[in-house]
Amino acid sequence: MSVPAIPDRSPAPRSGAGDVLPDVRTVGLPRITAGFDEVERLDRVTHLNVHGSMPSLTEGELLDLAELMGLRGRGGAGFPFYKKLKAVGEAARRRGTPTAVMVNGCEGEPACRKDAVILRRAPHLMLDGALLCAEILGARELVISVTRDTNEQSVRDALAERGLGTKRGRQLRARIVRMPERFVSGESSGIISAANGGLPLPPGKKVSASESGLGGMPTLFSNTETFTQLAIGARMGAIRFGSAGAPGEPGTAMLTVSGSVPRQTVVETPTGVPMSYILQMCGGNPGQGVLVGGYHGAWIDPSVASMVTISRESLEAHKATLGAGALLPLDPGLCPLGESLLVAQWLAAETAGQCGPCRLGLPRMAGLLQDVLNGGGQAALEQLRQTAVAVKGRGVCKHPDGSMRFVMSSINAFTDDLAAHVLGGGCGRPTVGVLPLLKSDPPMPRGGGSAGAAAAAPSNKRLNVDWTLCKGHGLCAGVLPEIVRLDRDGYPDIAGTPVPPHLDAAAQRAVARCPALALRMEEGGRR
């Protein structure tokens, strides 16, 4: 399949230190990325010059449009958007209550940056889609959740350019909710909790936002790209919108490509384009496998990556999902299980710390995967599988299940490497940390605080053992079972283990109680 590619559309955005946006490239004609080659950020005037004004639609017309577009949520779950929209309208009429619209702009996963690109460079497209829904539903409030200063400022500027805000007397009040920069911050119930003045944590209650969300109102909740695609479709109409992309999945998709590529890149591409083409244009190839869907996704092998296309149907045929649109190829010269271990440790540190599967299960899974790589043999592998089964389906949110899926995919996808570690002395290849991982905010303490409170400084602490002093007393395992495991000889296996912020106090107690003074908590190092 020959698809024309437009070169890099990014005039080097001037972002804050440590928060530089990735390159942006486009396959075919740009839609969401239109105008990116001209300006860094499309303000209100430039936005209207590039995209034109929004049409006026009735509720029925919008429902038909969303259904004909085949529009699904672009945050990972892929739920049909028109069904959400319909459910909110029906709930509001049945209950006789106003509604709300919420935009999930939180990307706590460093492998996903497409929403950040939209929020910082084309925020008015997102607002077009969200405000269209708010008008049709008669919404009282519009809430946009973000995690970074730069994203927040861009959205705040866009609201000001439209004269939107929280002043009394407005028919629609628009505000921004700032979330901690953590993996679990994108979970819908956590964002709703924060917007309602509670903690930015998933409360564990299985209540549909369409029935009771912001302030108990029926709430339309979807992510940044979803509302943006709706704005594109409203202008183009369903037929023109479907002129690009796969027949059963029309339009374009925003992807983030990282891993073994020269630079992290966000790509707007029609659906149906071969994955291998996208990887090639970003300077990569299927390598020894591609992680699809991000850190709650799954690995696919090179032969599959070479034949699948960017579409839900194509990927689902191989038990994979595009999720939030992340593609991470892995170079054949690296240890795939070692690279996966770094991600598993990061996922364990990203827990909200409020349920057993997250607080205990994820660190144990990461520790057991490390045991497997360090020669723990078949026994360690079997323990890892048992722990994964115990974690599945028991979390307050979807983080434990997604993390378990990633770990199990890692050991199932790289069977030759697994055998080399289980039966021999390892695969002999290095681990360099090619999969992007970032430090992030600690979780909000459960004892109090508000969503708007400033988060504490991120932790970069690790537990280490001075082996010249350790006598194998094992007291640390009793004080800190979430992190410390004893090997077959009774000694702690915790070399360089990261300490999640919520376990800091327990780790300090374990250090203080070591009778041989062998346990230490140190700052620095890779997280």
From TrEMBL:
Residues 337-381 form the NADH-ubiquinone oxidoreductase 51kDa subunit iron-sulphur binding domain. The keyword Nucleus does not apply. The keyword Iron-sulfur applies. Pfam families: Complex1_51K (PF01512), Fer4_15 (PF13459), NADH_4Fe-4S (PF10589). Gene3D superfamilies: 3.10.20.600, 3.30.70.20, NADH-ubiquinone oxidoreductase 51kDa subunit, NADH-ubiquinone oxidoreductase 51kDa subunit, iron-sulphur binding domain. GO terms for biological process: cellular respiration. One of its GO terms (molecular function) is metal ion binding. Transmembrane segments: none annotated. Its cofactor is [4Fe-4S] cluster; FMN. SUPFAM superfamilies: 4Fe-4S ferredoxins, Nqo1 FMN-binding domain-like, Nqo1 middle domain-like, Nqo1C-terminal domain-like. InterPro entries: ComplexI_51kDa_subunit (IPR050837), Nuo51_FMN-bd (IPR011538), Nuo51_FMN-bd_sf (IPR037225), Nuop51_4Fe4S-bd (IPR019575), Nuop51_4Fe4S-bd_sf (IPR037207). Keywords: 4Fe-4S, Flavoprotein, FMN, Iron, Iron-sulfur, Metal-binding, Ubiquinone. This is NADH:ubiquinone oxidoreductase, NADH-binding subunit (Chain F).
